[in-house]
């Protein structure tokens, strides 16, 4: 036995659990992520600046990552998820690549751009929700006027933690379309009717674009006939037509309408959530911190934080797009809701 | 040992398998069902006749059953399924009841009637597809003008064979509505967005009505951008938003658009199918028998029959609504497709 | 309008639902099946008689079907299921065939026979439970001494009702073995350890034989440490290792130990059940009819009958093997339990 | 616009994706984990030392963590999993607690200890595999002679990354048993027979102990009748009887017999694996590093490493217990196998 057994076991690759216990088994989830809000008005000028200062040849993708102040290394927006704001100018194209991380875009402003996903050109309009599931080839092109900007959502922090990240560049800059433009949307976006000559391939939704017009239609149809969720208002999930479940296996993507004057119940669960304001003004209180939000802002609600939404307007809806890692936690048997009442 | 051992075992409740073998284990499915077509124009006058001659108090439901000539006792349209045509007049109501058999209606003509399903009034329009899943209370009321007629589809032949038929009358003639009219359609019929404050209950779709307007929209959106199925054309399945699967566990309900001049490939599978012509004129050849169909006709394609559709018009679509017991056969591991080529 | 509209619609293939209503929609399941018991001692001499009088070349299978007095045409034991007793003599072989009906054998007496299932010879011993899932080739050979007898269970009544019956003879009388004898049992029958280099194929269990020794071991291990089911005693289900569910998609196969003096609670459900007495003596009261059973007897409990088991011995266990169509009813959403108390 | 737009966006919580791209989207998974082996003979004296030097009152659990040299902060054995060696002395008890991390024990040496899991005392013998699924109360007691040592396996690195770690101490030191000792093993460990009066609760297997005697029996039964996996030999998975799948949702636990002279094919997949040598001597080459192993050693194979097993003995089996995060990767759609041939 050496003089110091702790040094001895260290040399053998072992360590005393009893000196680590509390850190490894905390009473409740501990995250470095903090509640945070990214103001679109403040970031937009820099988006435009970099659009001029940096070519897409140099950047491959021209994106401002929204980095949680507590999650800088590696950068993430909340623990398992990422948000960024991407800009592309008329005439530009972005190199075709694919990665095992799942991605989507939620369009903020502009017209005339499209992304090509596994051979299908998918056109973008404000409010549209576009999918690029893991290992699907994708490139972007802009043939319209003025800058096009969108929110990018990815699960790369989770995929990287899971040691399952793969990435590949296509040999050509852009894919050659192999099916008619926007075909998947036309095939699947209608009253729950599913083409029977097609078959499910992979775990993700086959739909390239869930257009904003359908989302508006849904909110109008539902109207005020139902109370909705006391926490999240009229909250709808984008679903995979083959399963009825989330559009991709790791992320749940939803949109909420908060009625004029909506004042939500406080709630917490283990899922981490990123919110993007489609329209309206309000406050979300997260663990006692008030995040004041307006159009196109993005804000982070770390997992197991108590949050509570409020629509500040008494005459206008607020609409929030949001995504979380709830399906990943569910799949691993780790999702938990706090069912104690909050004071 | 008695003189005749066959008599002796008969007295003990036993029988020699070797005298039954071929009947019990046929090389291929044997059905008494025959290909058959029910002409709407011929039946409609009798519908109107009975509407006058017979009150709904007497009839409970005023329905002409479409009985396959080979399946009279008990009556069925194909082996596991039933079709009937129901008529209700303005001012009439039909008694509330429920049964374990699953049912749906596909509306043929009329306006102003509704069915109330588990407390929700669901209004009917031509082409709408309405669900009454097993053990859901339902009653009908007509507050419009002129007769209202629809196709009833049920799986009672299957449910009865399975010895699982239950039936109950409500103590009152009509249910009292408990939710806003047509609520489920407004909640669920839009671009694959599912309310998250609701939870799946039971095996069936929660949607009361898949409206015709959505079906038309789907056909228009898909247009001629894809070939569809060589057998069934642009064939779409009505789906359960919670699962992406069939609307009820025993029946697959679909609608097909056959393009002008469509001439389908011959096909057969073990599922039995009932077709209803929404519009158009054509021929379906079933095991060599030509069924000539026009608007609102109904026809039966028994399981394991070779069938082949043809749209006779060169300038108009034909649209066929159809339902089969494929999900039941799938669930039991008994569904089979004939993958040999047909000449 | 003809003189008699009822005749007119009949000519068109239609019938008035209102004249059929009560029969098609009974308040509770109606079956022609009756509670019935087949006494092994009475049947055994005839088994031996036919074993001498009839060659297997003539019979293909030498089986006495156990026909429910209420279900003679077509013959069945309960509504969806069949039981028969098969006998094979030393030196005999039974022709290889396959059918879409699922089958199993529960061995009653004899040693030295085997069945060959998809190329695997599976040897039989009293109490063993052998599977022949749908569309698996199977033939039988007897290389031992004395007659070999077993209970055959099949779902052909269900498969035939579903219009999904296929049957095929092999070109040769017997299959050539392609794997070592009894291989599947050795691969899968041990403490919940599953070979990982194999993959699930089809819906049925891959196990050829669930040997009696394991069943005895299970009863001994469980002993009297737990109360078990108040209805069925220590009731164990034979399971499919790939799913944890029933061994075949249409039949649930179980074995129950009723302790000395066991007097069960009355119960009913919509599944129909066939019981086979492995050992012991008792009474099962079915809808008020007392069935007195002893070793190797078989008895039928039709669906929705109230039944109640009693072990008449105060010093010996009774052991019942039983199978029902519960999984088929579950898969179709039709299974129902009577949860009202019985007096 | 400020002088330096990069500083400006940093102040707003944003960062330029183009400066991070390659790190966030590597061509293949990148891990800090290294192939490593922990020698039992070297660690055992320190286990005994700490058993004397440190009371269980101080330590709560007396465990040497096996820390991968590349994964020290926080400590883990491979990316998502942990292994430790625990020791308890006669007369000792370890405090009852529960955590959302899933845990198991694989017993190395000693007799007479038991763990109490949700009220069931589960006794330990060398080679036994015991479960403590997430959020199950567990405490340990040793009533035998001599030290008791076992391998602890946990998914806390994954659970902590997922921000889903919860932990709770019981108010008492030990649980009061609520069911007979070792009941779950007696109920479930036998030839694929499942008690029908019980119901599935939660996502994990209900079995407290998969005893070594059953594992030996499995290897003997399978013998040399089948080739097994060219990579992992006769590899068996411990399964959940309710599902046929892995015993806990995040970890796949398996045991492999490598025949005398076995020389495996090289292989890689994205799952990270920890191996524990039950018996035998061999070499596993991991990404070109040779790990020479003997009885009770533990070694780490990081995800996406090429590994290849060799049993050095020509007259003795080697037996390896191993566990990986494959089910977690599968559940998230991230599992991938390298199907290119290795040279």
TrEMBL record, chains A, B, C, D:
Pfam families: Cupin_2. Gene3D superfamilies: Jelly Rolls. Residues 85-152, 256-320 form the Cupin type-2 domain. GO terms for molecular function: gentisate 1,2-dioxygenase activity. Its EC number is 1.13.11.4. It comes from the Bacteria. It is an enzyme of class 1 (oxidoreductase). InterPro entries: Cupin_2, GDO-like, RmlC-like_jellyroll, RmlC_Cupin_sf. Keywords: Dioxygenase, Oxidoreductase. PANTHER family: 1,2-DIOXYGENASE PROTEIN-RELATED, CUPIN. This is Gentisate 1,2-dioxygenase. It comes from Sulfobacillus acidophilus (strain ATCC 700253 / DSM 10332 / NAL).
């Amino acid at each position: 036995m050496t003089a110091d057994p702790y040094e001895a076991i260290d040399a053998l690759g072992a360590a005393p659990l009893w000196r680590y216990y509390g850190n490894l088994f905390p009473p409740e989830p501990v995250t470095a992520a903090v509640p945070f809000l990214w103001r679109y008005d403040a970031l937009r000028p820099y988006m435009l600046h970099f659009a001029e200062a940096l070519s897409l040849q140099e950047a491959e993708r021209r994106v401002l990552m929204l980095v949680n102040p507590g999650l800088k290394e590696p950068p993430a927006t909340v623990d398992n998820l990422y948000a960024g704001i991407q800009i592309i100018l008329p005439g530009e194209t972005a190199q075709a690549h694919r990665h095992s991380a799942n991605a989507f875009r939620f369009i903020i402003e502009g017209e005339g751009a499209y992304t090509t996903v596994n051979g299908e050109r998918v056109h973008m309009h404000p409010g549209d929700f576009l999918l690029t599931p893991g290992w699907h080839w994708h490139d972007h092109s802009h043939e319209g006027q003025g800058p096009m900007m969108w929110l990018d959502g990815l699960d790369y922090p989770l995929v990287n933690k899971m040691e399952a990240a793969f990435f590949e560049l296509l040999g050509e800059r852009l894919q050659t379309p192999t099916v008619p433009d926007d075909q998947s949307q036309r095939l699947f976006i209608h009253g729950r009717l599913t083409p029977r000559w097609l078959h499910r391939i992979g775990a993700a939704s086959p739909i390239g674009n869930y257009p904003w017009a359908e989302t508006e239609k849904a909110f109008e149809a539902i109207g005020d006939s139902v109370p909705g969720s006391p926490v999240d208002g009229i909250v709808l999930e984008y679903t995979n037509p083959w399963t009825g479940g989330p559009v991709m296996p790791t992320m749940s993507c939803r949109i909420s309408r908060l009625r004029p004057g909506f004042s939500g119940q406080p709630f917490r669960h283990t899922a981490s959530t990123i919110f993007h304001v489609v329209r309206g003004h309000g406050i979300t209180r997260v663990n006692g911190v008030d995040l004041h939000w307006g159009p196109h802002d993005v804000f982070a609600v770390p997992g197991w934080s108590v949050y509570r939404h409020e629509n500040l307007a008494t005459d206008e809806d607020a609409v929030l797009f949001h995504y979380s890692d709830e399906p990943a936690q569910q799949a691993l048997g780790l999702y938990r809701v706090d069912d104690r009442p909050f004071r």
